[in-house]
């Protein structure tokens, strides 16, 4: 792994080339985000037409800064980028984040190649161009022109789309999804997905890697690196350009080749990547991977107070290749004491809509505490005799008393306004909770499928390493 890539995530100093005094300008917003999010290193605005921006001394060029500069963020017109790269390289910068657009994505490949060529002359790496920046929450770095108050967490999000990436940054804040990093890669002229995967595989703050992918430059290397990373942490990918018209849209967007969807499907399967059908699903899965332990065994048990929700969960799990086993006898004996005589003790366990707040929580906890159970999926339907906010509070209190979760618990809370309040509270506590049973089921299936996939990849790598 190139050590210069570390400066993307933990730079000791940053120069912002194209820093602006005007709110609303990209050069202003990036500088403002760096300062406002709490970055602790040195920051140098670079603008030959200003002496001070946001209370900081402004420099005419990077080479005019006497101190060492690790990262250079470039937000100037495309035609001026090569000169800015040359100046940064002369100053000893290790990595350049090129925000500017107007390169390969509009057919100007020669200019993009020149930028890379000049950077390589100095051993400098390039992120971009055509991006919105980078966020790394452990170092309080928000070098982007996206939303500022990103929530720290365990998801690393790599996105090839700028506008969509910025929008999803905002979504993570609203949905209370914590991230370790958000990395806009744009045209991927130099640093690509494989480079970032290598770094994030060793990052202790990253539990799962989520990629919005349009195309890759070096498919063979991407698959090789992804296969190695999968043995350490999951990779979830949303592949754009799955249709012929979608592939054409990708080419006009970032200049990437979307490729044949069958080829990507085979490649993902070979490397162990989890392909999500859409962005919502990708973030659902990633949320769970970022805060839950992996299943202890194949004994997944569903507990619901609504038979219909249980049926939908069973169907969804089956569609993802997960079949529910019979519950352990020891668990059925415990649950029988808590539920009406007409409750179903199959799997799903239906405690019925007549169960009380405490009764539902007790049933979930008895299932969690059973040593034969590997994971629990709970579905709660709001009824007149229960209050979802009370259930959420009781569950959080009891799990806190237990010292936290030692096996996965995924929930679906279905109902009105109170259920959404409960969902937010549970998610804030670290219990992935969704407003629909199918989303919860697909998320639990992803946890189980990753365990299976990882075992297969480890076995395959082991066999290959033993070949003469």
Please outline the helices and strands.
Blueprint lengths: L5 H4 L3 E5 L8 H11 L5 E5 L5 E2 L2 E2 L13 E4 L6 H10 L4 E4 L10 H13 L3 E3 L5 E4 L4 E4 L7 E8 L2 H13 L4 E6 L8 H9 L6 E6 L5 H12 L4 E5 L4 H11 L6 H11 L2 E3 L2 H13 L8 E5 L2 H13 L9 H8 L12 E2 L6 H13 L5 E7 L6 H14 L7 E6 L2 H13 L3 E2 L2 H30 L2
Parallel strand pairs: 1-2, 1-5, 5-6, 6-7, 10-11, 10-12, 12-13, 13-14, 15-16, 15-17, 17-18, 18-19
Antiparallel strand pairs: 3-4, 8-9, 8-11
Task: Describe this entry's structure for a reader.
The chain is α/β, with parallel strands linked by helices and 468 residues long. Helices cover 42% and strands 18% of the residues. The chain contains 16 helices and 19 strands. It has a seven-stranded mixed beta sheet, sandwiched between helices. The protein is elongated and about 80 Å long.
CATH architecture of the largest domain: 3-Layer(aba) Sandwich
Q: Unreliable runs, pLDDT <50, ≥5 residues? A: 250-258
The number of distinct β-strands equals 19
Main beta sheet strand tally, sense and closure: 7 strands, mixed
Secondary-structure-based class equals alpha/beta
Helix count equals 16
Q: Separation of termini?
A: 27 Å
Which value, in Å, is the CA radius of gyration? 25 Å
Mean pLDDT: 94
Q: Give the name of the CATH superfamily of the largest domain.
A: Succinyl-CoA synthetase domains
